[in-house]
Design brief:
Elements (H helix, E strand, L loop, with lengths): L1 H10 L14 H6 L6 H16 L2 H13 L3 H12 L5 H22 L4 H10 L7 H11 L4 H23 L4 H11 L3 H8 L12 H10 L10
Helix pairs in contact: 3-9, 3-10, 4-5, 4-8, 4-9, 6-7, 6-8, 8-9, 9-10
């Protein structure tokens, strides 16, 4: 029962790593009219999930396996490898802010001498970028969860980030977003079966429209929050 409690805690949108602050480029997509209703939102969320599954998801699984071996060098290598798939500033900012916060929380929960604590020191020293999927992998390993739990939580987080942002940005209801979340959950098992066999050289993230949306957002006017 304790493991399931940890799974719910780490996957909760209220877990304080800042997921509510980001939209995976949805702000630009809605301002341009690309996403404007439930159908287009579902297509966008599916694209975000697919893109993440075979990049971030693969990296998270690799980090999880390194953490199981207490292999800090392996975690750092996977973190640096993942950085090669971050083409735009917005994505790097989102992932490293959330990753460092997740590492800080894991170090508090498991101790400064834990793998999470030691990895956090390499982030602070600039030796490791500190991407969120890597932090997820390490935290889930330390919680004695399994890698399927990790992948499910990862996919849930990506989809739910987009859908939560959509409630602020476009005309959809909670009924719409929950239906989309329910339906896209049907794809997760197949994505895991593919991602679990992939190595770094197999990772792929071809979703150019989403990278363009993220780059446009840097100078765009559409924002979820005033600042």
């Amino acid at each position: 029962m304790k493991n399931y409690f940890r799974l719910i805690q780490f996957a909760d949108s209220a877990f304080p790593v800042g997921t509510f602050s980001f939209s995976n480029g949805l702000e630009t997509a809605t301002s341009l009219g690309v996403v404007h209703d439930a159908a287009t939102l579902k297509a966008y969320a599916r694209s975000a999930a697919n893109q993440a599954a075979f990049t971030d998801g693969v990296a998270a699984l690799a980090a999880f396996r390194s953490a199981r071996r207490d292999d800090l060098a392996g975690i750092i290598k996977t973190d640096r490898d993942l950085a090669l798939f971050r083409l735009n500033f917005e994505a790097r900012l989102m992932q490293t802010r959330m990753g460092k916060k997740m590492a800080e929380l894991a170090a508090r929960l498991y101790g400064e001498n834990s793998l999470a604590g030691r990895w956090l020191e390499t982030i602070k020293a600039g030796e490791s970028p500190g991407y969120f999927p890597i932090a997820q992998g390490a935290a889930f390993s330390l919680a004695s969860l399994d890698e399927r739990d990790l992948f499910v939580a990862h996919q849930y987080g990506v989809i739910n980030m987009v859908l939560s942002a959509a409630l602020r940005l476009t005309r959809v209801s909670h009924y719409d977003t929950q239906k989309i979340l329910f339906e896209l959950g049907e794809d997760v098992d197949a994505a895991y079966e593919e991602a679990r066999e992939m190595k770094f050289e197999n990772m792929n993230s071809f979703a150019p429209e989403m990278d363009i949306f993220a780059s446009l957002h840097e100078k765009g006017q559409s924002r979820m929050f005033m600042n």
